[in-house]
Amino acid sequence: MTDKLAHFVTPEPFDPLEVEALTPEQERFYLASQWRMMWWRLKRHKLAVYSGVILFILYFSILITEFLAPYALTSRHTDHIFAPPQSINFFHQGEFVGPFVYGLEYRLNMTTLKREYTVNKTQVQPLRFFCRGDKYGFWMGFGSDRHFACAANGGTLFWLGTDRLGRDVWSRILYGTRISLTVGLVGITLSFILGLSIGGAAGYFGGWVDNLSQRAIEVLRSLPELPLWLGLSAALPVTWSPVAIYFGITLILALLDWPGLARAVRSKLLALREEDFCTAAALMGAPPRRIIARHLLPNFMSHLIASATLSIPSMILAETALSFLGLGLRPPITSWGVLLVEAQNLEAVALYPWLLLPAVPVIITVLAFNFFGDGLRDAADPYK
Question: Which structural domains are found in the chain, ordered by start?
Answer without folding.
Answer: 86-157 (no CATH), 171-380 (1.10.3720.10)
